[in-house]
Amino acid sequence: MSIEVSSLPGGNRPPGEASDPPRPRSGTSPRTPGLLLGLVLLAGAAALSLTVGTEHIPPGQVWSALLSPTGTEHDAIVRELRLPRTLIGIAVGVALGLGGAVMQTLTRNPLADPGLLGVNAGASAAVVTAIGVLGVTSFTGYLWFALAGAALAAVAVQALGGARHATPVRLALAGTAVNAALFGYVNGLQLCNLNTLDGMRHWSVGTLAGRDADLLLTVTPLLAAGVLLALALARPLGALALGEDHARALGTRVRRTRVLAVLAITLLCGGATALCGPIGFIGLMVPHAARALCGPDPRRLLPCCALYAPVLLLVSDVVGRVVVPPSEIEVGTVTAFLGGLLFIQLVRRRKAAQL
């Protein structure tokens, strides 16, 4: 995001510089095509998730199972397995996509991931403590410990980064330190307790399968609060992306914006991680694709990320179902493979810092 030279006080356009491209007429919105495409892709990904799997079910039977079930085996598969899985995928995708976009805008780092704030590490440390020390075995129990751990880790990163004078570099360094310490604790406790290692493996795999719809209902208020907060921060985050001095000149309260952005990331990514385990790289990949379609302005970028992220997550989940039938590959493994390739490409690009 940049400010036009001619818009600054006393600023004159250098001689010979090309004039600005014409702005869209009032009443038209440059975000509309990107949002419409996202809605179409999301509808298609949801239909694919309901239809494709180890047991192929024709679209007509899927529609009948949703609207007028007759108690057949296909009805049970669609309503009890695939529908909750698809809804959870949409909710988690929205949360991770928004969290990634807010994180990259907040830190002004195109390679930033929500895990940079210690969300995944905090959730993992809390879950491994619940399993190894307190003997918790249910996904419902994991849920609340993961949420608490994610929140505490985010608060610790914010405190270490300087709550009053936090900068993108200090936040990144604090997040790296907290991640290293917490993952060291997780690995140590797992090695000392084999039961903890087995229990942790079921949660940390990063999957949409086997998650009950009741868990989604429990997490939905937190995710909804995070979505609303992230969208409400779109304008001040856009100003903050210009730099703190420009943001203050535009009337943005920098400290409050940073704290609320960290809170939004914690609610979004903490809730998603608690629900499905750590699913990496969604928050890294989607904002880059969305910028190509919607531009860098957070007012357009955030809604686009909320649409494209669940598309990527659902398609990755479908790929994991069919690539090695009759077994499945967890969606976290698929996104890690795709994200690793993208991450290498971004690092190799000389102009990655300008994205």
TrEMBL record:
SUPFAM superfamilies given in the database record: ABC transporter involved in vitamin B12 uptake, BtuC
Principal subcellular localisation of the protein: membrane
Pfam short name (any one): FecCD
Lipid bilayer topology: Multi-pass membrane protein
Region (Disordered): 1-30
Membrane-spanning residues: 34-53, 86-103, 115-136, 142-161, 215-234, 259-284, 329-347
Intracellular or extracellular location(s): Cell membrane
Keyword field: Cell membrane, Membrane, Transmembrane, Transmembrane helix, Transport
InterPro entries: ABC_BtuC-like, ABC_transptr_permease_BtuC
Family affiliation: Belongs to the binding-protein-dependent transport system permease family. FecCD subfamily.
Protein name stated in the entry: Iron chelate uptake ABC transporter family permease subunit
Species, as recorded: Streptomyces broussonetiae
